[in-house]
Amino acid sequence: MSGATRVRQAALGDFAVRPRMLLITALALPIGALGALAAWALLRLIGLTTNLVFFWRWDTTLVAPGSGPHPWWLILGAPIVGGLIVGMMARYGSEKIRGHGMPEAIEAILIGGSIVQPKVAALKPISAAVSIGTGGPFGAEGPIIMTGGALGSMLAQLVHLSADERKTLLVAGAAAGMAATFNSPLAAILLAVELLLFEWRPRSFVPTVAAVAVGTVVRGFLLGDAPVFPVDATGLHLTPAIEVFAVAAGLTGGLLAIAATWLVYRAEDAFQKLPVHWMWWPAIGGLIIGLGGLVEPRALGVGYDVIDELLTGRATLSLILGILVVKTLIWSLSLGSGTSGGVLAPVFMIGGALGALEGTIFPAAIPGFWAMCGLAAVVGGVMRSPLTGVVFTLELTHAWGALLPLVIASTSAYALSVLLLKRSVLTEKIARRNLHLTREYSTDPLETFFVREVMTPLSHPASATADAECVRSSDTLRAVAYRFAETGKSSAAVVDETGAVIGRIDVQDLLHARRHDLTEEHRRSRILLAARSRNGRNAPGAGA
Predict the structure, then answer these.
(1) What range does the domain containing 462 cover?
(2) 158, 204, 327, 447: which one has the fewest Cβ atoms less than 10 Å from its Cβ?
(3) 234 in a structural domain
(4) 3-state secondary structure 449-511
């Protein structure tokens, strides 16, 4: 095979991703429906467990444990029993059900080839229903992410796919479940991009959006298509003072996010030091939950009713303070026990409570406005996902006019979290499993240079031998790096469009792009003053 023929075949590879993308998108459509069904089933299962434990009735309606009077022994004992059941399920079923869902999904993507065991898909929602239904102050979204991701992974394992393609279907199922839980398709897509995909490429973005779209449509049939926490934004008038105070809301939200993250991992460290098997830790966490429930019963459970009161401005000061203190403590401390439950709903509640408290002294807007800012800020700080925090708040409330202050608050919290905290509540858990994860995305410098810019040219074009490793002069350095990695070669002949050899490229030449990237990042200069100084020296009569 001639060098020119091999070059032409390599060019055809640029289009190979397109039919694969369409195939993965087609597979993502039923996964989106399955993700929505999983979300509906888990919410019903949580409702059933809560009704059985706290109200002694058979009903699947989602209800808050603290919405009615209960004997003290039930409030104290139910979370302990629930934690014990979860611990036993984790020990004798699958340890993968421990945790709040997203780090487990990330770990499966990073080192597990995006392979999730079928028993995790079955045990995760059951353990979450037990944990939340017995009073655990957690959200349903983390387990739904893991369950939806498991369903996507299982379908992917039935088909001849690569690890990247399995990852796409895992994330598609997770995002579809998230979108169905909160009726928030755009936030679910952003969450997938910011936290799970580790790339922004058509091959993964298009199938994920397809799954989310199907999941949202199916959600409309199962749970309705109204906003989860509708806010009446009539009369919202933004002033410069409100925008300034949005910065303050963001900074305080960032501080709360840092404190909550710190508490989660100090609690995890404390549990690690206990002289008992980890199976018992969720029960000990349940004791913390029960004690907090005696102080503020409405801090128990998933808390959608409390979030609604905070975002619509109907929460009393005593409820705001109780949630801000008790919910933060019992959620942070019990999550460190390794029980099963999500982080988003508690973060919504804690952030909303902080904002509602600030709303008592900040400039008046609409009822619940500052609770919305607090929610966006704490999500941006805890999850390190500022755009997701903004879009979640808007899709939950449909208060679209609040966009700018939400962006300000969420970004301020994100900036403070980045400055003061090394890792987020998600990436810290990954780091503690001896894995490295970066959430910062930039253009690969190898993608910005062509072979012709770094190659060693030949004085006279030559013909390529049949077995020569060839690359095109118009290839990017990234394509060459992949070619070297695939073939094990460290050099290649460079050919032009006619197949004539015009140069040579070695693996060392690839460092040109990295050196340029380092220069762009670290070399600093004062351009305008330097130019003025040069012009002054070159002016007629200068130095006379």
Answers:
(1) 442-519
(2) 158
(3) no
(4) CEHHHHCEEEEEEECCCCCCCEEECCCEHHHHHHHHHHHCCCEEEEECCCCCEEEEEEHHHHH
SS3 of 51-114: HHHHHCCCCCCCCCHHHCCCCHHHHHHHHHHHHHHHHHHHHHCCHHHCECCHHHHHHHHHHCCC
Task: Summarize pLDDT for 501-541 with one digit per residue, the tens.
Answer: 899 999 999 988 888 888 877 877 776 766 666 666 665 65
Statement to judge: residues 389 and 459 lie in one domain: no
Q: How many residues does the chain have?
A: 544
Q: What is the DSSP letter of 359?
A: T
Percent helix, strand and coil across the chain, each rounded to 5? Answer: 70, 5, 25
Q: Is residue 538 part of a domain?
A: no
Tell me the average pLDDT across 171-188: 92
Nearest-angstrom CA–CA distance, 259 and 332: 9
Q: What sign for the dihedral angle of Cα 383, 385, 387, 388?
A: negative
Which distant-in-sequence residues (6+ apart) come within 8 Å of 90 by Cβ? 97, 98, 127, 278, 279, 282, 338, 340
- Does residue 273 sit in the same domain as residue 212? no
- Among 309-313, 342-346, 357-361, where is mean pLDDT lowest? 342-346
Is 17 inside any structural domain?
no
Count up the domains in the chain and report the number. Answer: 3
Burial classification of residue 16, based on how many CB atoms lie within 10 Å of its CB (0-12 exposed, 13-18 middle, 19 or more buried): exposed
Q: Phi/psi zone of residue 519: left (φ > 0), alpha (ψ -120 to 50 degrees), beta?
A: alpha
The two tokens of residue 247 are 């910065």
Q: Name the phi and psi angles at 341, rounded to 5.
A: 170, 155
φ, ψ for residue 340, nearest 5 deg: -105, 120
Q: How many helices (H) and strands (E) does the chain have?
A: 23, 4
Q: How far apart are the first and last CA of the chain?
A: 71
Q: Are residues 415 and 280 both part of a single domain?
A: yes
User: What's the rounded Cα separation, in Å, for the pair 401 and 97?
Assistant: 40
Do residues 198 and 310 both lie within one domain?
no
* Closest C-alpha among 329, 344, 347, 349 to residue 285: 329
Cα gap 101→122, rounded to integer Å? 14
